[in-house]
Amino acid sequence: MIVPRWPHAHFEIYSSLDEATNAGNALHTSQLALPEETCNMVYATDGYEQSVSNLSHISLTTDNIFSDGVDSQMAAVTGDVANGYTVRLTVGVPV
Question: What share of the chain is helix, strand, coil (3-state, %, to 5)?
């Protein structure tokens, strides 16, 4: 059985664009969570029926990764379905 995950995106941080050509050079790998309101707006469009079902079976507190706290991983989202979204998350990385 596949366990649904809260809607999220993975990202990697590199010291430079040149270093980003090799995944082994990543300084940090993490993920960001998407706000439920944004997910609901996107999932209200055609083609997301399975995503609507998945979202109904998961919460941030039951997600196997975000269940320990999502405050530092919740993205700020602006925009809309028609024009696209901008997702922002400030991440501290020791250098």
Answer: 30, 25, 45
Indicate whether 8 belongs to any domain: no
Q: With b meaning 16 or more CB within 10 Å and e meaning fewer, what string describes 43-78?
A: beeeeeeeeeebbeebeeeebeebeeebeebbbebe
State how many domains the chain has. 1
Tens of pLDDT, residues 33-62 = 999 999 999 999 999 999 999 999 999 999
Banded pLDDT at 80 (limits 50, 70, 90): very high
Cβ–Cβ under 8 Å, residues 39 and 55: yes
Q: Which distant-in-sequence residues (6+ apart) come within 8 Å of 41 by Cβ? A: 80, 81
The answer on pLDDT for 23 being more than 90 is no
What type of residue is 77?
V
Domain extent, residue 44, equals 33-61
- pTM of the full structure: 0.84
